[in-house]
Specification:
alpha/beta, 5-stranded mixed β-sheet, two-stranded antiparallel ribbon, 7 strands, 7% strand, Uncharacterised_CoxE, vWFA_dom_sf
Length: 454
Protein backbone atom coordinates (compact mmCIF):
# COMPACT_ATOMS: atom_id res chain seq x y z
CA UNK A 1 0.00 0.00 0.00
CA UNK A 2 2.89 2.37 0.87
CA UNK A 3 4.40 1.92 -2.59
CA UNK A 4 1.03 2.60 -4.27
CA UNK A 5 0.56 5.81 -2.27
CA UNK A 6 4.07 6.82 -3.23
CA UNK A 7 3.29 6.36 -6.91
CA UNK A 8 0.08 8.37 -6.57
CA UNK A 9 1.98 11.17 -4.85
CA UNK A 10 4.60 11.19 -7.59
CA UNK A 11 1.96 11.50 -10.26
CA UNK A 12 0.30 14.36 -8.37
CA UNK A 13 3.64 16.18 -8.14
CA UNK A 14 4.03 16.02 -11.92
CA UNK A 15 0.53 17.31 -12.57
CA UNK A 16 0.82 20.07 -9.94
CA UNK A 17 4.02 21.20 -11.68
CA UNK A 18 2.20 21.18 -15.03
CA UNK A 19 -0.61 23.38 -13.68
CA UNK A 20 1.84 25.71 -11.97
CA UNK A 21 3.80 26.14 -15.20
CA UNK A 22 0.66 26.83 -17.25
CA UNK A 23 -1.00 29.32 -14.88
CA UNK A 24 1.88 30.94 -13.03
CA UNK A 25 4.87 32.30 -14.95
CA UNK A 26 7.10 32.19 -11.84
CA UNK A 27 8.95 28.93 -11.34
CA UNK A 28 7.97 26.94 -8.26
CA UNK A 29 11.34 25.71 -6.95
CA UNK A 30 9.87 23.02 -4.70
CA UNK A 31 7.74 21.50 -7.47
CA UNK A 32 10.64 21.65 -9.93
CA UNK A 33 13.06 19.81 -7.65
CA UNK A 34 10.43 17.24 -6.64
CA UNK A 35 9.51 16.62 -10.29
CA UNK A 36 13.18 16.21 -11.25
CA UNK A 37 13.61 13.61 -8.52
CA UNK A 38 10.52 11.71 -9.78
CA UNK A 39 11.62 11.77 -13.43
CA UNK A 40 15.16 10.59 -12.66
CA UNK A 41 13.88 7.89 -10.28
CA UNK A 42 11.65 6.33 -12.97
CA UNK A 43 14.44 6.36 -15.55
CA UNK A 44 13.28 9.17 -17.82
CA UNK A 45 15.54 11.96 -19.13
CA UNK A 46 15.54 15.22 -17.18
CA UNK A 47 15.05 17.07 -20.50
CA UNK A 48 11.34 16.23 -20.15
CA UNK A 49 11.16 19.07 -17.63
CA UNK A 50 12.87 21.63 -19.87
CA UNK A 51 10.14 23.64 -21.67
CA UNK A 52 12.71 24.76 -24.27
CA UNK A 53 13.33 21.17 -25.40
CA UNK A 54 10.97 19.83 -28.07
CA UNK A 55 9.53 16.33 -28.03
CA UNK A 56 11.39 15.73 -31.30
CA UNK A 57 14.70 16.44 -29.60
CA UNK A 58 13.91 14.07 -26.75
CA UNK A 59 12.87 11.29 -29.12
CA UNK A 60 16.00 11.79 -31.22
CA UNK A 61 18.18 11.27 -28.14
CA UNK A 62 15.96 8.52 -26.72
CA UNK A 63 14.25 6.80 -29.70
CA UNK A 64 12.79 4.13 -27.44
CA UNK A 65 10.35 6.75 -26.09
CA UNK A 66 8.64 7.35 -29.47
CA UNK A 67 6.30 4.39 -29.09
CA UNK A 68 5.29 5.53 -25.60
CA UNK A 69 3.95 8.84 -26.94
CA UNK A 70 1.66 7.10 -29.44
CA UNK A 71 -1.83 6.80 -27.96
CA UNK A 72 -0.54 8.17 -24.67
CA UNK A 73 -3.82 9.92 -23.81
CA UNK A 74 -6.39 7.57 -25.32
CA UNK A 75 -8.89 5.55 -23.23
CA UNK A 76 -7.87 2.08 -22.16
CA UNK A 77 -10.38 -0.45 -20.81
CA UNK A 78 -7.59 -2.26 -18.92
CA UNK A 79 -6.52 0.81 -16.97
CA UNK A 80 -7.53 -0.67 -13.59
CA UNK A 81 -4.95 -3.38 -14.03
CA UNK A 82 -2.20 -1.00 -15.14
CA UNK A 83 0.89 -0.88 -13.00
CA UNK A 84 0.88 2.33 -10.94
CA UNK A 85 4.56 2.89 -11.62
CA UNK A 86 3.79 2.93 -15.32
CA UNK A 87 1.09 5.53 -14.68
CA UNK A 88 3.71 7.83 -13.16
CA UNK A 89 5.81 7.40 -16.30
CA UNK A 90 2.83 8.23 -18.50
CA UNK A 91 2.09 11.30 -16.37
CA UNK A 92 5.61 12.60 -16.99
CA UNK A 93 5.33 12.10 -20.76
CA UNK A 94 1.82 13.56 -20.96
CA UNK A 95 2.89 16.60 -18.94
CA UNK A 96 5.72 17.24 -21.39
CA UNK A 97 3.39 17.21 -24.40
CA UNK A 98 0.72 19.37 -22.75
CA UNK A 99 3.19 21.96 -21.46
CA UNK A 100 5.00 22.34 -24.79
CA UNK A 101 1.72 22.79 -26.67
CA UNK A 102 -0.24 25.05 -24.32
CA UNK A 103 2.51 27.20 -22.81
CA UNK A 104 3.46 29.42 -25.77
CA UNK A 105 4.52 32.51 -23.86
CA UNK A 106 4.15 35.97 -25.38
CA UNK A 107 5.99 38.34 -27.68
CA UNK A 108 7.42 37.82 -31.14
CA UNK A 109 7.65 34.32 -32.59
CA UNK A 110 10.40 33.05 -34.88
CA UNK A 111 10.01 30.57 -37.72
CA UNK A 112 11.97 28.07 -35.63
CA UNK A 113 9.58 28.46 -32.69
CA UNK A 114 6.53 27.98 -34.90
CA UNK A 115 8.07 24.90 -36.48
CA UNK A 116 8.88 23.46 -33.05
CA UNK A 117 5.35 24.13 -31.79
CA UNK A 118 3.84 22.46 -34.88
CA UNK A 119 6.02 19.42 -34.25
CA UNK A 120 5.00 19.26 -30.58
CA UNK A 121 1.33 19.66 -31.56
CA UNK A 122 1.82 16.72 -33.91
CA UNK A 123 3.07 14.62 -30.99
CA UNK A 124 0.01 15.65 -28.98
CA UNK A 125 -2.26 14.55 -31.82
CA UNK A 126 -0.46 11.21 -31.89
CA UNK A 127 -0.89 10.96 -28.12
CA UNK A 128 -4.63 11.45 -28.61
CA UNK A 129 -4.74 8.76 -31.32
CA UNK A 130 -5.23 11.20 -34.22
CA UNK A 131 -3.42 11.74 -37.48
CA UNK A 132 -0.86 14.56 -37.82
CA UNK A 133 -2.53 17.93 -38.37
CA UNK A 134 -6.00 16.45 -37.92
CA UNK A 135 -7.07 18.31 -34.77
CA UNK A 136 -5.77 21.64 -36.06
CA UNK A 137 -7.81 21.29 -39.26
CA UNK A 138 -4.65 21.44 -41.32
CA UNK A 139 -5.17 18.16 -43.12
CA UNK A 140 -8.25 16.29 -44.20
CA UNK A 141 -7.23 13.15 -42.43
CA UNK A 142 -9.55 10.57 -40.89
CA UNK A 143 -9.80 9.90 -37.20
CA UNK A 144 -7.06 7.66 -35.94
CA UNK A 145 -7.08 5.23 -33.07
CA UNK A 146 -4.13 4.96 -30.81
CA UNK A 147 -3.17 2.54 -28.09
CA UNK A 148 -2.65 3.45 -24.48
CA UNK A 149 -4.24 4.40 -21.20
CA UNK A 150 -6.15 7.27 -19.67
CA UNK A 151 -3.36 9.41 -18.23
CA UNK A 152 -5.02 11.83 -18.45
CA UNK A 153 -8.24 10.75 -20.18
CA UNK A 154 -8.89 13.89 -22.21
CA UNK A 155 -9.62 12.14 -25.50
CA UNK A 156 -13.35 12.76 -24.98
CA UNK A 157 -12.54 16.46 -25.29
CA UNK A 158 -11.07 16.12 -28.80
CA UNK A 159 -13.88 18.21 -30.42
CA UNK A 160 -12.92 21.09 -28.07
CA UNK A 161 -9.15 20.55 -28.23
CA UNK A 162 -9.01 20.80 -32.02
CA UNK A 163 -10.22 24.41 -32.28
CA UNK A 164 -8.02 25.37 -29.32
CA UNK A 165 -4.92 24.04 -31.08
CA UNK A 166 -5.95 25.86 -34.23
CA UNK A 167 -6.37 29.10 -32.27
CA UNK A 168 -2.96 28.73 -30.62
CA UNK A 169 -1.32 28.13 -33.98
CA UNK A 170 -3.11 31.12 -35.49
CA UNK A 171 -1.88 33.29 -32.59
CA UNK A 172 1.70 32.12 -33.14
CA UNK A 173 1.45 32.94 -36.85
CA UNK A 174 0.02 36.37 -35.95
CA UNK A 175 2.99 37.04 -33.67
CA UNK A 176 5.50 36.26 -36.40
CA UNK A 177 7.09 38.90 -38.58
CA UNK A 178 5.88 36.80 -41.49
CA UNK A 179 6.96 39.09 -44.30
CA UNK A 180 10.52 39.24 -42.99
CA UNK A 181 10.57 35.46 -42.52
CA UNK A 182 9.37 34.88 -46.08
CA UNK A 183 12.01 37.22 -47.45
CA UNK A 184 14.74 35.00 -45.96
CA UNK A 185 14.91 31.63 -47.82
CA UNK A 186 16.59 29.92 -44.84
CA UNK A 187 13.89 31.05 -42.40
CA UNK A 188 11.08 30.34 -44.88
CA UNK A 189 12.39 26.80 -45.30
CA UNK A 190 11.73 26.21 -41.60
CA UNK A 191 8.00 26.88 -41.98
CA UNK A 192 5.63 23.94 -42.12
CA UNK A 193 2.43 24.58 -44.12
CA UNK A 194 -0.73 24.63 -41.99
CA UNK A 195 -4.21 26.05 -42.34
CA UNK A 196 -3.39 29.01 -40.07
CA UNK A 197 -0.26 29.82 -42.04
CA UNK A 198 -2.00 29.44 -45.41
CA UNK A 199 -4.81 31.73 -44.26
CA UNK A 200 -2.28 34.41 -43.33
CA UNK A 201 -0.42 34.01 -46.62
CA UNK A 202 -3.63 34.30 -48.65
CA UNK A 203 -4.65 37.43 -46.75
CA UNK A 204 -1.24 39.06 -47.22
CA UNK A 205 -0.34 37.86 -50.72
CA UNK A 206 -1.01 41.24 -52.36
CA UNK A 207 1.57 42.85 -50.08
CA UNK A 208 4.33 40.37 -50.96
CA UNK A 209 6.78 40.53 -53.81
CA UNK A 210 10.03 39.02 -55.03
CA UNK A 211 11.54 36.29 -52.86
CA UNK A 212 8.83 36.65 -50.19
CA UNK A 213 6.04 36.09 -52.72
CA UNK A 214 7.86 33.12 -54.28
CA UNK A 215 8.30 31.49 -50.85
CA UNK A 216 4.66 32.16 -50.00
CA UNK A 217 3.52 30.50 -53.23
CA UNK A 218 5.77 27.53 -52.54
CA UNK A 219 4.19 27.04 -49.09
CA UNK A 220 0.67 27.32 -50.50
CA UNK A 221 1.42 24.81 -53.26
CA UNK A 222 2.95 22.34 -50.78
CA UNK A 223 -0.12 22.57 -48.55
CA UNK A 224 -2.50 22.18 -51.50
CA UNK A 225 -0.63 19.08 -52.71
CA UNK A 226 -0.70 17.48 -49.25
CA UNK A 227 -4.42 18.06 -48.73
CA UNK A 228 -5.23 16.98 -52.29
CA UNK A 229 -3.44 13.67 -51.76
CA UNK A 230 -5.61 12.90 -48.70
CA UNK A 231 -8.82 14.05 -50.39
CA UNK A 232 -8.18 11.93 -53.49
CA UNK A 233 -7.95 8.90 -51.21
CA UNK A 234 -11.26 9.80 -49.56
CA UNK A 235 -12.95 10.32 -52.93
CA UNK A 236 -11.68 6.93 -54.10
CA UNK A 237 -12.98 5.20 -50.96
CA UNK A 238 -16.38 6.90 -50.91
CA UNK A 239 -19.47 4.99 -52.15
CA UNK A 240 -20.14 5.35 -55.85
CA UNK A 241 -23.43 6.07 -57.65
CA UNK A 242 -26.47 3.82 -57.86
CA UNK A 243 -26.53 0.68 -59.97
CA UNK A 244 -28.11 1.20 -63.36
CA UNK A 245 -30.90 -1.44 -63.46
CA UNK A 246 -31.60 -0.69 -67.12
CA UNK A 247 -28.26 -2.21 -68.15
CA UNK A 248 -28.24 -6.03 -68.17
CA UNK A 249 -25.38 -7.66 -66.26
CA UNK A 250 -22.35 -8.78 -68.23
CA UNK A 251 -22.31 -12.56 -68.49
CA UNK A 252 -18.70 -13.07 -67.49
CA UNK A 253 -17.31 -15.33 -64.79
CA UNK A 254 -16.20 -12.49 -62.48
CA UNK A 255 -19.82 -11.25 -62.30
CA UNK A 256 -21.28 -14.68 -61.47
CA UNK A 257 -23.55 -14.51 -58.41
CA UNK A 258 -22.81 -17.96 -57.04
CA UNK A 259 -25.08 -17.78 -53.97
CA UNK A 260 -28.10 -16.66 -55.99
CA UNK A 261 -27.40 -19.25 -58.70
CA UNK A 262 -27.39 -22.08 -56.14
CA UNK A 263 -30.51 -20.77 -54.39
CA UNK A 264 -32.51 -20.42 -57.61
CA UNK A 265 -31.54 -23.92 -58.78
CA UNK A 266 -32.21 -25.83 -55.56
CA UNK A 267 -35.30 -27.41 -57.10
CA UNK A 268 -32.92 -29.27 -59.44
CA UNK A 269 -31.16 -31.06 -56.60
CA UNK A 270 -30.89 -34.82 -57.18
CA UNK A 271 -30.73 -36.53 -53.76
CA UNK A 272 -29.82 -39.92 -55.22
CA UNK A 273 -26.83 -38.63 -57.12
CA UNK A 274 -26.22 -35.85 -54.57
CA UNK A 275 -25.74 -33.44 -57.41
CA UNK A 276 -27.19 -30.04 -58.23
CA UNK A 277 -28.15 -29.51 -61.87
CA UNK A 278 -27.92 -25.86 -62.93
CA UNK A 279 -30.14 -24.78 -65.80
CA UNK A 280 -29.76 -21.02 -65.26
CA UNK A 281 -26.89 -18.78 -64.19
CA UNK A 282 -27.35 -15.48 -62.38
CA UNK A 283 -24.96 -12.54 -62.65
CA UNK A 284 -24.40 -9.40 -60.59
CA UNK A 285 -25.12 -6.01 -62.08
CA UNK A 286 -22.06 -3.78 -62.08
CA UNK A 287 -23.01 -0.94 -64.42
CA UNK A 288 -23.40 2.44 -62.76
CA UNK A 289 -25.35 5.43 -63.96
CA UNK A 290 -23.07 7.57 -66.09
CA UNK A 291 -25.33 10.50 -67.02
CA UNK A 292 -23.21 13.66 -67.37
CA UNK A 293 -23.56 15.66 -64.17
CA UNK A 294 -22.94 19.31 -63.37
CA UNK A 295 -21.51 20.23 -59.96
CA UNK A 296 -21.83 23.86 -58.89
CA UNK A 297 -19.87 24.70 -55.74
CA UNK A 298 -20.61 28.05 -54.09
CA UNK A 299 -18.23 28.99 -51.27
CA UNK A 300 -18.48 31.81 -48.79
CA UNK A 301 -14.96 33.30 -48.67
CA UNK A 302 -15.62 35.73 -45.82
CA UNK A 303 -13.27 35.76 -42.85
CA UNK A 304 -14.96 32.94 -40.92
CA UNK A 305 -14.85 30.48 -43.82
CA UNK A 306 -11.17 30.33 -44.82
CA UNK A 307 -10.77 26.64 -43.95
CA UNK A 308 -13.83 25.82 -46.08
CA UNK A 309 -12.57 27.90 -48.98
CA UNK A 310 -9.24 26.06 -49.09
CA UNK A 311 -10.72 22.58 -48.72
CA UNK A 312 -13.55 23.16 -51.22
CA UNK A 313 -11.23 24.61 -53.83
CA UNK A 314 -9.10 21.49 -53.68
CA UNK A 315 -12.14 19.18 -53.56
CA UNK A 316 -13.70 20.88 -56.61
CA UNK A 317 -10.50 20.32 -58.59
CA UNK A 318 -10.55 16.61 -57.75
CA UNK A 319 -14.15 16.16 -58.90
CA UNK A 320 -13.35 18.23 -61.99
CA UNK A 321 -10.93 15.45 -62.91
CA UNK A 322 -13.65 12.78 -62.88
CA UNK A 323 -15.17 11.72 -66.21
CA UNK A 324 -18.50 13.30 -67.17
CA UNK A 325 -18.52 15.77 -64.28
CA UNK A 326 -18.75 19.45 -65.22
CA UNK A 327 -17.56 21.47 -62.22
CA UNK A 328 -18.21 25.17 -61.62
CA UNK A 329 -16.77 27.10 -58.66
CA UNK A 330 -18.08 30.42 -57.32
CA UNK A 331 -16.59 32.30 -54.36
CA UNK A 332 -18.27 35.25 -52.71
CA UNK A 333 -18.28 37.74 -49.86
CA UNK A 334 -19.99 41.03 -50.73
CA UNK A 335 -18.96 40.37 -54.35
CA UNK A 336 -19.01 37.13 -56.32
CA UNK A 337 -16.19 35.68 -58.39
CA UNK A 338 -16.57 32.89 -60.96
CA UNK A 339 -13.46 30.74 -60.55
CA UNK A 340 -14.54 28.04 -63.00
CA UNK A 341 -11.77 28.71 -65.57
CA UNK A 342 -9.17 27.75 -62.93
CA UNK A 343 -11.10 24.97 -61.19
CA UNK A 344 -8.63 22.28 -62.33
CA UNK A 345 -5.77 24.09 -60.56
CA UNK A 346 -6.55 24.76 -56.87
CA UNK A 347 -3.27 26.62 -56.42
CA UNK A 348 -4.13 29.18 -59.08
CA UNK A 349 -7.70 29.36 -57.79
CA UNK A 350 -6.63 30.21 -54.26
CA UNK A 351 -4.30 32.93 -55.51
CA UNK A 352 -7.34 34.62 -57.08
CA UNK A 353 -9.46 34.61 -53.92
CA UNK A 354 -9.95 37.71 -51.80
CA UNK A 355 -10.49 36.49 -48.25
CA UNK A 356 -12.46 38.57 -45.78
CA UNK A 357 -15.24 41.10 -45.99
CA UNK A 358 -18.96 40.73 -45.37
CA UNK A 359 -21.44 38.25 -46.81
CA UNK A 360 -24.00 38.70 -49.58
CA UNK A 361 -25.19 35.37 -50.96
CA UNK A 362 -27.50 37.00 -53.50
CA UNK A 363 -24.55 38.09 -55.67
CA UNK A 364 -23.38 34.46 -55.77
CA UNK A 365 -26.90 33.26 -56.53
CA UNK A 366 -26.97 35.57 -59.56
CA UNK A 367 -23.97 33.67 -60.96
CA UNK A 368 -25.14 30.21 -59.92
CA UNK A 369 -28.72 30.14 -61.20
CA UNK A 370 -27.91 30.57 -64.93
CA UNK A 371 -25.57 27.56 -64.70
CA UNK A 372 -28.47 25.19 -63.89
CA UNK A 373 -29.38 24.07 -67.41
CA UNK A 374 -30.67 20.55 -66.57
CA UNK A 375 -31.84 20.55 -62.95
CA UNK A 376 -32.13 16.78 -62.55
CA UNK A 377 -28.50 16.35 -63.58
CA UNK A 378 -27.23 19.19 -61.39
CA UNK A 379 -26.04 19.33 -57.80
CA UNK A 380 -25.51 22.69 -56.08
CA UNK A 381 -23.28 22.67 -52.99
CA UNK A 382 -23.52 25.87 -50.97
CA UNK A 383 -20.89 26.23 -48.23
CA UNK A 384 -21.48 29.02 -45.73
CA UNK A 385 -22.38 29.80 -42.14
CA UNK A 386 -25.49 31.45 -43.70
CA UNK A 387 -25.31 34.64 -41.67
CA UNK A 388 -26.79 36.81 -44.43
CA UNK A 389 -28.24 40.30 -44.72
CA UNK A 390 -31.11 39.26 -47.03
CA UNK A 391 -31.93 35.90 -45.47
CA UNK A 392 -35.54 35.52 -46.67
CA UNK A 393 -34.81 36.41 -50.29
CA UNK A 394 -31.74 34.16 -50.51
CA UNK A 395 -33.52 31.20 -48.93
CA UNK A 396 -36.41 31.52 -51.38
CA UNK A 397 -33.93 31.31 -54.27
CA UNK A 398 -32.31 28.22 -52.73
CA UNK A 399 -35.72 26.60 -52.18
CA UNK A 400 -36.54 27.26 -55.86
CA UNK A 401 -33.39 25.38 -56.89
CA UNK A 402 -34.38 22.46 -54.68
CA UNK A 403 -37.93 22.34 -56.07
CA UNK A 404 -36.69 22.52 -59.66
CA UNK A 405 -35.31 18.99 -59.31
CA UNK A 406 -31.67 19.92 -58.77
CA UNK A 407 -29.98 18.44 -55.72
CA UNK A 408 -29.26 21.28 -53.28
CA UNK A 409 -26.73 20.53 -50.52
CA UNK A 410 -26.25 23.20 -47.84
CA UNK A 411 -23.03 22.76 -45.87
CA UNK A 412 -22.20 24.61 -42.68
CA UNK A 413 -18.47 24.41 -43.26
CA UNK A 414 -15.99 22.04 -44.83
CA UNK A 415 -13.22 21.49 -42.34
CA UNK A 416 -11.23 18.57 -41.03
CA UNK A 417 -12.68 18.84 -37.56
CA UNK A 418 -16.27 19.26 -38.74
CA UNK A 419 -16.91 22.20 -36.43
CA UNK A 420 -18.81 25.20 -37.71
CA UNK A 421 -21.52 27.62 -36.59
CA UNK A 422 -24.62 27.80 -38.79
CA UNK A 423 -27.36 30.42 -38.66
CA UNK A 424 -30.21 28.63 -36.76
CA UNK A 425 -32.83 30.37 -38.92
CA UNK A 426 -31.41 28.81 -42.09
CA UNK A 427 -30.77 25.46 -40.40
CA UNK A 428 -34.44 25.04 -39.47
CA UNK A 429 -35.72 26.07 -42.88
CA UNK A 430 -33.34 23.78 -44.74
CA UNK A 431 -34.57 20.95 -42.51
CA UNK A 432 -38.21 21.76 -43.32
CA UNK A 433 -37.29 21.92 -47.01
CA UNK A 434 -35.93 18.37 -46.89
CA UNK A 435 -32.34 19.45 -47.48
CA UNK A 436 -30.74 19.41 -44.00
CA UNK A 437 -27.38 21.08 -43.48
CA UNK A 438 -24.44 18.67 -43.62
CA UNK A 439 -22.52 18.67 -40.34
CA UNK A 440 -19.46 20.10 -42.03
CA UNK A 441 -16.98 17.22 -41.87
CA UNK A 442 -15.36 16.97 -45.26
CA UNK A 443 -15.73 13.18 -45.43
CA UNK A 444 -19.53 13.50 -45.35
CA UNK A 445 -19.53 15.93 -48.25
CA UNK A 446 -17.22 13.64 -50.23
CA UNK A 447 -19.59 10.70 -49.72
CA UNK A 448 -22.65 12.78 -50.61
CA UNK A 449 -21.09 14.05 -53.84
CA UNK A 450 -19.59 10.73 -54.86
CA UNK A 451 -22.96 9.01 -54.53
CA UNK A 452 -24.67 11.58 -56.74
CA UNK A 453 -21.96 12.15 -59.33
CA UNK A 454 -20.20 8.82 -59.86
Amino acid sequence: MTEEISHDNRRQVLYWRLLARLFDREEQAGLESASLAVVEDIGLPSALLDPRTSVDSIVQRHPELAAEFDGLMTPDSTSDERDRAAEVRRAALASKVLLNVFDTGSGAVTAEQLSRWQSDAGWMERALGCGPGELRGGRAAGTGTGQGGPTPDISRLIPEIGPELGAIEADLVDRMQLREVLADPDLAAQLTPSMSLIEQLLRDKDNLSGVALANAKDLIRRFVDEVAQVLRTQVAKAPVGELDRSVPPKRVFRNLDLDRTIWKNLTNWDPEEERLYVDRLFYRRTARKTTPQRLIVVVDQSGSMVDSMVNCTILASIFAGLPKVDVHLIAYDTRALDLTPWVHDPFETLLRTQLGGGTNGEVAMALAQPKIAEPRNTVVVWISDFYEWSAESLFNSMAAIHRSGAKFIPVGSVTSSGRGSVNPWFRERFKDLGAPVISGHIRKLVEELKTFLA
